[in-house]
Amino acid sequence: MVEYVNSLIDVSPRTAVVLGSGLGHFSEYVENQTSIPYAHIAGYPLSGVEGHSGEFVFGELGSEPVVVASGRFHMYEGYDLETVTLPVRFFHQLKVNNLIITNSAGSVRRRLEPGTLMMLNGHLDCTFRESSKMPDVVRGGEYHSSELLDRARAAARAEGIETAEGVYAWTLGPSYETPAEIEKIHELGGDAVGMSTVPEIRAAGKLGMRVLGISCLTNYAAGITDEPLTHEDVISVANRVSDKFTRLLKGTIESISSDLA
Length: 261
Ligand code: HPA
Description:
The chain is an alpha/beta fold. It has one domain (2-260): 3-Layer(aba) Sandwich (Rossmann fold), CATH 3.40.50.1580. 30% of the residues lie in helices and 26% in strands. Strands 5-8-7-6-9 form a five-stranded mixed barrel, surrounded by four helices. Helix 4 crosses helix 8 (242-256). Hypoxanthine is lined by residues 104-106, 176-177, 193-195, 218-219, 221, 229, 234.
């Protein structure tokens, strides 16, 4: 896979961005693009969720060589952990050292309104795969790079974008949570809830990459309000804030360029 992709691109990316639901058009901003559909890479998995197209876009943002992955793999699609984290191991082999992972997530706190961009400063594994004990919040630079967080904070300030910071709780899905589950996640210290990102953060942290997660809070999680929750709303709120999200991502990546080699 690495050999094939390297034969098609001129510049090796240093920064990779994984796009979540409804954020697919960020890749339009990449300059000097080479797009490679996942389907062209022998052995690479294919993504099937609405709002994901399944391709890499290689190129530059500012002077930073990047790769943007639009379309990702979730456990609820039937993929195992190996497959879900394959993109991260692939990036590592391409010599990427900064990884920005985005997602859509439900807000577990009333003060975090739909449309908020939340940078991750911790995560919770609420899948109960490794243990049946209640999880603790995992924090620390290995999984939530303070350098990248600083870059993102500065980019948000420069762009006049209000952001939040908090803990992302990972659930398996595919159904949204019950109000009781959300109450528990709230109690455990979760601020947002979603079905992705934590496996990739773990894999990238273990490989020594710098990682930053950013959630677009698309809805209040179950039971926070009486509104029913739909995938259509998730996509439409993600689309509504995609301009803001794009500016935050661009600013963050461009500030990586010079001194975070
Ligand atoms: N729960 C889980 N995943 C999600 C949600 C949610 O409320 N919103 C977007 N992705």
